[in-house]
Write a structure and sequence with these properties.
Number of helices: 20
Structural class: mainly alpha
Strand content: under 5%
Keywords: Membrane, Transmembrane, Transmembrane helix, Transport
Protein name: Major facilitator transporter
Order of helices and strands: HHHHHHHHHHHHHHHHHHHH
Membrane topology: Multi-pass membrane protein
CATH architecture of the largest domain: Up-down Bundle
CATH class of the largest domain: Mainly Alpha
Family: Belongs to the major facilitator superfamily.
CATH topology of the largest domain: Growth Hormone, Chain: A
InterPro entries: AmpG_permease/AT-1, MFS, MFS_dom, MFS_trans_sf
Helix content: over 70%
Radius of gyration: 22 Å
Number of domains: 2
Largest sheet: none
Number of strands: 0
Shape: globular
């Protein structure tokens, strides 16, 4: 291969990441990640430093449940036209409103004193969760409708890059500011992380692919607007099998992922070793996986790239079975963490791209809220109710072998859906090729 051809192939791989739609997805991801950090590790650290007991601190994680409930109000983002702001467009106006609500909620959390009024702090954290979930609904809809079908893989990757940077950046800024100016100033500074998504919407304007749903006038029409997005989805050929795949595809992976720290502790790894191998190697391996996922989606297409992702995520669980059998091994930990994060980064891109393509452009917000909620609920429930007992009953090696087996139904189901044509038959308008095809292909 000539040097010129090699350079052209390299440019073809990098070019999609530099297109304005992909860059927009990155900035949207930055704003999407920061509210999660505000009620996650950052709030945990703040409460601990204020002397709140551990049981109360861990109870604050219930604020995350709001993200799983967003399906119940996602239809508002599709169907309710905002006065005054609505002149800017449906998606832009909601982006500005949701972003403002997040900033206000974070500012409210900044001004409460956990040691003086724990109840007010609980309410403030839940309000951040509600505002952050609403912001996510708008951001996901804007991203999907801005990206052309051939950009869904790259755009999903850029969004995940942004999410990681927004989450980690907000958490780091909060710790830096808290040490110098106190927690109130830290939270107020972090509220500015809502601006990238808001400015992106103002600069790019209303997404070209946005489709307005049928206008609503009476009570019956409003009710129809609530159930319409779900009715449209389930009327597609094979929709129930697609939903089954969404529900089961990540059960094994979720069961495994949420138990890694338990394994490391029982194998005797120190905090320094965990920081180096799990946090350090894992972070960079994940970013590499995200990049590979974007390229693979563009080169291999949706069906083959998703099937490969499912296989890789299943095999990654075997690496932890091997680590559990080998015992304390830094090399083994680095290998298991590296492989798992590359697989997760790759899988996150192509699977999110597939889920994005399932949306009807008239109901993007409501349908993606349904899909994203369904994708995590079974795994989280199974982990919370059975993981600890399974590990105690069968040991780590057999547990991770079991999580690998639990991943097989998702692989087989998607393979069958691909062979039978159900993947294409159940596709939404967001994934349809046509005038949006890659002009450089």
């Amino acid at each position: 291969m000539s040097t010129e051809a090699s350079d052209r192939n390299l440019w073809d791989s990098v070019r999609p990441y530099l297109e304005k739609e992909s860059l927009a997805a990155f900035f949207l991801g930055v704003s999407s990640g920061f509210p999660y950090a505000m009620i996650g590790a950052t709030l945990t650290t703040r409460l601990a430093q204020d002397g709140i007991d551990k049981k109360t601190v861990t109870a604050f994680t219930l604020a995350f449940l709001v993200y799983n409930l967003k399906i119940f109000w996602a239809w508002l983002v599709d169907g309710v036209h905002l006065p005054l702001l609505g002149r800017l467009g449906q998606r832009v106006s909601w982006m500005l409103l949701a972003g403002s609500l997040v900033m206000a909620a974070v500012a409210n959390l900044a001004l409460v004193d956990p040691s003086a009024d724990l109840g007010a702090t609980v309410l403030a954290a839940v309000l951040v969760g509600v505002a952050g979930a609403t912001f996510d609904i708008v951001i996901d809809a804007y991203r999907i409708e801005t990206l052309k079908p051939y950009q869904l893989g790259t755009g999903s990757g850029m969004s995940q890059y942004g999410w990681r940077i927004g989450s980690a950046g907000a958490g780091a800024l909060a710790l830096f500011m808290a040490a110098r100016s106190g927690w109130s100033a830290a939270y107020l500074a972090c509220a500015l992380f809502a601006l990238p998504a808001m400015l992106t919407a103002l600069i790019l304007g209303e997404p070209e692919r946005h489709r307005e749903p049928t206008a609503r006038k009476g009570v019956g029409e409003v009710i129809a607007s609530i159930i319409g997005p779900f009715g449209e989805f389930f009327h597609r050929h094979g929709a129930w099998l697609v939903l089954l795949f969404i529900l089961v595809h990540k059960v094994g992976d979720t069961l495994a992922n949420l138990t890694f720290r338990l394994l490391f502790d029982d194998l005797g790894f120190t905090n320094d070793e965990i920081a180096i191998w799990d946090v350090g190697v894992g972070f960079w391996a994940y970013l590499i996986g995200v990049f590979i996922g974007g390229v693979a989606y563009a080169k291999m297409g949706l069906k083959r790239s998703v099937l490969l992702a499912l296989v890789l995520m299943a095999v990654s669980n075997l690496s932890f079975a091997a680590l559990a059998a080998a015992g304390h091994s830094n090399l083994g930990m680095a290998g298991a963490i590296g492989f798992e994060n590359v697989a997760s980064g790759y899988g996150g891109v192509v699977v999110v791209a597939y889920f994005s393509a399932l949306c009807d452009l008239r109901y993007t917000a409501a349908q993606y809220a349904l899909i994203s909620a369904a994708a995590s609920i079974v795994g989280r429930f199974a982990t919370g109710t059975t993981a600890g007992a399974l590990i105690e009953g069968m040991g780590y090696v057999n547990f991770y072998l079991l999580t690998t087996v639990l991943a097989l139904p998702g692989i087989v189901l998607f393979w069958w859906m691909s062979r039978s044509g159900l993947v294409d038959a159940a596709m939404g308008t967001a994934g349809e090729e046509g005038s949006d095809a890659d002009p450089f292909a």
